Amino acid sequence: MPRAVILTALPVEYQAVRTYLIKLREKEHPQGTIYEEGKFVANGQEWEVGIAEIGAGNTVAAAATERVIAYFKPNILLFVGIARGIKDVKIGDVVAATDVYGYESGKVGDGFFTRPKVGKSADRLVHRARAEARKQEWLQRLSSNPVSEPCVFVAPIAAGQKVIASKKSDIFEFLRASYNDAIALEMEGFGFLSAAFAYPDIPAIVIRGISDLIEGKNDDAIEPEEVRQKKASLHASAFAFQILSKLQTTQSVKPALDHLPMQKPKEQVLGLLNRLLPSQLDTVIFRYDVELAHLSNGTPNQRSIELIRYALQKEGTDLSQLLTVIYTVVPHMK
User: For the whole prediction, is pTM greater than 0.85?
Assistant: First the structure.
């Protein structure tokens, strides 16, 4: 039976996810972390789903992600919760993150010099999110009809440790100048995707419901904060389980961790990359359209391994697109 793991940061997010599961049972990690695992059944497919409430912050999220991967050995990872809207969105809308910017990455000297870091949701899950966003089916998973119909955005968001409450703040101005396509702000998605990046055969995605807006219409007299957070959590959970319901293990989800069928193409590509001159490797990276935030300034071998990890997330396990680029740059290797 395929297994998904859903991480949350807050109790309200955890409870919203929990409502979609049956046959829940408690599971305790050897180091004391308490999880729950239940079943989710849809479209003839039954999933085992592990859930965890981990607390706030990118560092916490990265450590928790590593731990759940080792413990559950999942086929898919999701982070589901609430976020603050920056632009375009309204309270109750859902954002499936294509990218999560770690906006606090940089160097402090006479000023702050940004060194962009980005976590990317798995390409296959982003495509599924776009497909479901075009439909209204996910709304049927809500227990009641919302007064204002929520929209789903598939777009970048930003993640950091600071709570930004005003558009006049220096941090907001920095976000608008450096990450102006981000439409929401949260605190865990970058750490989650950074940890998941080391396991390219386990697709991961961040899904957020908008619970408030930066200097927006957050009138507590009309709709208290706890009500907005619950609504946003329920909407994000409904969309997350809609995505899960459409995944077929024979098509969209690969076996967890490094099973043997994946080894041959990975080894073949790594062997080719390790034979390239540094200038040829740079050309492959450029033509494959890699975002440089995904690659370090390490040795050619390290960069080749990171390129393969990126490619596995981008196109799946056969790496045919990356092979095509390599053979275009160095046709004599074909």
Answer: no
